[in-house]
Automatic annotation (TrEMBL), chains A, B, C, D:
Residues 10-90 form the ACT domain. The active site is at 232. InterPro entries: ACT-like_dom_sf, ACT_dom, Formyl-FH4-Hydrolase_C, Formyl_transf_N, Formyl_transf_N_sf, PurU, PurU_ACT. It catalyses: (6R)-10-formyltetrahydrofolate + H2O = (6S)-5,6,7,8-tetrahydrofolate + formate + H(+). Keywords: Hydrolase, One-carbon metabolism, Purine biosynthesis. This is Formyltetrahydrofolate deformylase. One of its GO terms (molecular function) is formyltetrahydrofolate deformylase activity. CDD domains: ACT_F4HF-DF (cd04875), FMT_core_Formyl-FH4-Hydrolase_C (cd08648).
Amino acid sequence: MTDKNIPRAILLFSCPDSKGIVAEVTHFISVYGGNITDSNQHNDSETNTFFMRVAWDISDFDIPRDKITQAFEPIAIKYNMDWRIEFSDRKTRMAIFVSKFDHCLYDILLRNKEGEIDADIAMILSNHKDAEPIAEYFDIPFYYFPVKRENKTELEKEEISLLKKNNIDLVVLARYMQILSPEFVKEFRNKIINIHHSFLPAFAGAKPYHKAFERGVKIIGATSHYVTEDLDEGPIIEQDVVRVSHKDGIPDLIRKGRDIEKLVLSRALKLHIDHRILVFRNRTVVFD
Amino acid sequence: MTDKNIPRAILLFSCPDSKGIVAEVTHFISVYGGNITDSNQHNDSETNTFFMRVAWDISDFDIPRDKITQAFEPIAIKYNMDWRIEFSDRKTRMAIFVSKFDHCLYDILLRNKEGEIDADIAMILSNHKDAEPIAEYFDIPFYYFPVKRENKTELEKEEISLLKKNNIDLVVLARYMQILSPEFVKEFRNKIINIHHSFLPAFAGAKPYHKAFERGVKIIGATSHYVTEDLDEGPIIEQDVVRVSHKDGIPDLIRKGRDIEKLVLSRALKLHIDHRILVFRNRTVVFD
Amino acid sequence: MTDKNIPRAILLFSCPDSKGIVAEVTHFISVYGGNITDSNQHNDSETNTFFMRVAWDISDFDIPRDKITQAFEPIAIKYNMDWRIEFSDRKTRMAIFVSKFDHCLYDILLRNKEGEIDADIAMILSNHKDAEPIAEYFDIPFYYFPVKRENKTELEKEEISLLKKNNIDLVVLARYMQILSPEFVKEFRNKIINIHHSFLPAFAGAKPYHKAFERGVKIIGATSHYVTEDLDEGPIIEQDVVRVSHKDGIPDLIRKGRDIEKLVLSRALKLHIDHRILVFRNRTVVFD
Amino acid sequence: MTDKNIPRAILLFSCPDSKGIVAEVTHFISVYGGNITDSNQHNDSETNTFFMRVAWDISDFDIPRDKITQAFEPIAIKYNMDWRIEFSDRKTRMAIFVSKFDHCLYDILLRNKEGEIDADIAMILSNHKDAEPIAEYFDIPFYYFPVKRENKTELEKEEISLLKKNNIDLVVLARYMQILSPEFVKEFRNKIINIHHSFLPAFAGAKPYHKAFERGVKIIGATSHYVTEDLDEGPIIEQDVVRVSHKDGIPDLIRKGRDIEKLVLSRALKLHIDHRILVFRNRTVVFD
């Protein structure tokens, strides 16, 4: 409900909890003429860790935007914060990795067109050529990397180089059927979002719909998470489910699953590009 | 996730939006040694109204609890706030009104026993004697008011007097099949919570399950709301739904509906007694 | 889970309930060498009406498909059935009406491409030219009918003529912002499916998201129904909902609503083209 | 929607699929004057297995009820059926096992009182005395079996003997915190229903809410299943989920989980006692 046209700074941090943090942070914003438009906090009582997201209108802020980080740093140091500052009018630059299934790809591109996923979709990369006409229709550069076991190291290097050169800050695996190497993952810590077609931690790994059918579950799910070195073990951003029955064979699970894959991935992307997610100990704090 | 044993003050307010409110409120708490445990805010851009709920640990607060209101008043006046301060260790005193259906009554009493609805259930009032043994089992005083058209004005006066004498601050209509008079409602503004067995505004008034069956809907609902002078028109606190089909006759709708009536009413009660609701222009802001 | 490649006959009927119907119908199928692949029945106890849908493999059926109707007729007459026979390998010919919003249009076209909505999409009709490039991308004929108050009667006649000429048997209003005349509706009884962006009967008519916001509901919905002469009063096929909160302004309701509009409309279309719906007294019996 | 007062026979079977089964079964019912009130079938195309549930009014059935099994047997043998016949007016005799948590126990007892779970609750067994006053309030015999590692074999024998003597045909583990021995399980094949407080197969075994919190899932679940020798691996009857967030600590997961545990267990019990479940290869076919 926030007016999207107002430029805002968004501060996200976690730190050991102590008195006066909120007061000091909000005073910093207020004293320089910022108007807080959105504020959320959370306290993890188990670890005594404090989390906060605060956004403020910087139209009349006395500190120019390129000096805000520097100005806030003393407070961050004082409270030992893990922090970052984002700006609402700087669009996330996104690269979409895809294989042959195109439903998530279409979904992201259409939501982008609607302004719902308000990012710069800078490129589509694929190990197949199937998505090339889609890229063309939506006028997005398409790159073909026929990754195979024998050329994976080399092609991943090229991919990383391409992503870096294009200032990509979010890699989306939109049903990309390849596992990224630990080296790739390290380059984009908390910047790779995957959609897994099961309700994790159930049915991690390959062929989750087949496993779900075999086990006879009455509900199937989808999970969007940040990619870490451990397959399907990264911090979960969003999940959703759909009811199934004995009437649903594997093709039905796949069909019903597509709808939740699209919804879950797109919600996760929106939360990420709106800078609403903090990662802490392989879990996420999502300020929606 | 907040430790329930820490005594906290909870400030709730709405006011015209302007710069510096959050900073001033949090500074007030911080400067007297309060530690904020929970904070939420909302801005209604249409009316430019600001809403806030902030809770702080008062164990080491420099202002004694009976002076906090007085101390905060200048800020409230400055920003033209509609405000109140509650204390987490003062339990809401609840009266439950019930007729013959007892599923919501049992549900509230059992959740109270679990500590989930953490209120003092001071009494059960009914226009029937059916619930008396239930009251006895849970050791709650039971009052029988056989309200009829001809004695309604008189009995309502007695009820109001009984409620006032017992310092009741929340009246729960747990499938109470009587309409309260405007006079009664006025005495407990935003302090009467009803459960209506439909997805309002669909099927307001009597026999909603019959109407839902007649219309052939594929989903039925329940709505918990504050009672106002306009029947089923008060501010909605919580709603939920359940899927139905052509296989469900009216008795099935009634059966399926019971489950969501219980869930929706109990969630609304928990939100109210945890002081998470602000009412504004016949809508609610719910800080959960 | 039925093998789509097996040609099947699908019998749907309703009739006054009496003994032996199921036995007689299944005997008819069995005696001529049909193998039942799917069977559903329902009894409306209020009106004592019996409903049945039964599908059978006709690969080895002794009656040629163009004689099945004639062969079954005596049974239909005996039990006073309202009945029809469909064939699984005859695709429904669909025309999509659309205005400016294209999310439902894209959704149907993509599901059609996936084989999920297994119809012949014969044409797209619109009162605006916005959807023309979409039609082109998916290679579907596009027709522009700039319907206005003054030319409505005339243009509707042309539309009806075009639909008839092309043997259209399902008209889909995919967020078509025009009301069809009673004359149009009469031509396609139970063959026009609309998506309404509210949880009917709540918020019928124009601007349901604005009304939902105004009322302060906590859940919004979408409803797919057959179009009748009474606006938003036709038999409901499918509904679904999504949770909202005070944080959601009208643009958020519109955004969240798009997802359920797409899901609800596509489910209704799938049920219709799979011949799973019987209409009875302005309600639907849906054999899924 | 079926009239509960009409006595009905309910035939359930699975067998290798072949032509004419439905016709032969329905002819058997029809020819002796039975009126089919409910019929469902399913074909598992992977294993080519056919499943059917058919219920018929036996008020005017020409075969007395104690001869129906014998009369049907030739058809069962012909098609190599795994089959049983139940009667709607013979109530399932249920024993509830419980430990200290009483929310599922109360829930079942209250639904039984409402007529929703229409069984004879013959006894409550527990390894603690906490539930004794509840048993007393609802007027159900209570048995105390303080099962410990050292006396487990012996006490289980006594339990089995007690259950047999009382003709118990359904054992409900309503958050019973003991694992039954394989010997116990063998005695009640497909007649023991457990509620597990996770979305199986995720978080099988002990402390699922703690594991769910640790993993950072965004949705938690509950699963009702038949108990087999493999812990939490039996055929799943019903599952449901509830959304959680970073705000929910373990006590919140436990609280939110209670609601779905109650709902899922009670739905599974209703399906079982209404004879709507067939077990096949560790999965269930549920004709609802």
